[in-house]
Amino acid sequence: MGKFLRLLFGCHCRSDRSFFYKGKQFPLCARCTGELVGMVLAVPAALFLGYPKTVYCLLMLLPLITDGTVQRVTKYESTNIRRLITGILFGMGIIFMLIHFHNFNLYLAKELLTYMVGSPPPYV
């Protein structure tokens, strides 16, 4: 399972940027672990609480992008807790953006069917 997760996330799995439990390293680094947790949490959150507007979803992506970019271009070294938190926000933001994308595609399909047929089918 760890190999699959590393490939899916494109994770570097550096030990200095990973969490350990009982002496064993997590299969993903702290940031990718956060993304996975965020993605898993976003599904029930969207089902039971709804999901934020697109602009807020985009804002949820910014902390990880900012933290990762600043760390890459400067000598700043982020902490694993910060990587985890920004990863959770990013993971949730990505899932919410996918929901918006799905809804937009449904809307677009309805509009195209209305244009081509004259009225949308009752199931759309």
Task: Give an overview in words.
The structure is a single chain. This protein has 124 residues and is mainly α. The protein has one domain (2-117). 69% of the residues lie in helices and 8% in strands. It has a two-stranded antiparallel sheet with strand order 1-2. A hairpin with a 2-residue loop joins strand 1 (18-21) and strand 2. The longest helix is centred in the C-terminal third of the chain and has 38 residues, at 80-117. It starts with a helix and ends in a 7-residue tail after the last helix. 23% of the residues are buried. The mean pLDDT is 91.
Quick summary:
The chain has 124 residues and is mostly helical. The protein has helices at 2-9, 30-49, 54-73, 80-117; strands at 18-21, 24-29. It has one domain.
Query: What class do helices, strands and sheet pairing give?
Result: mainly alpha
Q: What is the count of β-strands?
A: 2
Give the C-alpha Rg: 19 Å
Q: What form results from the Cα inertia axes?
A: elongated
Distance, first to last CA: 38 Å
Number of domains: 1
Task: Let me know the largest β-sheet.
Answer: 2 strands, antiparallel
Strand order of the largest sheet: 1-2
Q: Enumerate how many helices there are, as a single number.
A: 4
SSE order in H/E notation? Answer: HEEHHH
Q: Estimate the mean pLDDT confidence.
A: 91
Task: Assign a percent range to the helix content.
Answer: 55-70%
**Low-confidence segments, ≥5 residues, pLDDT <50?**
none
Beta-strand percent range: 5-15%
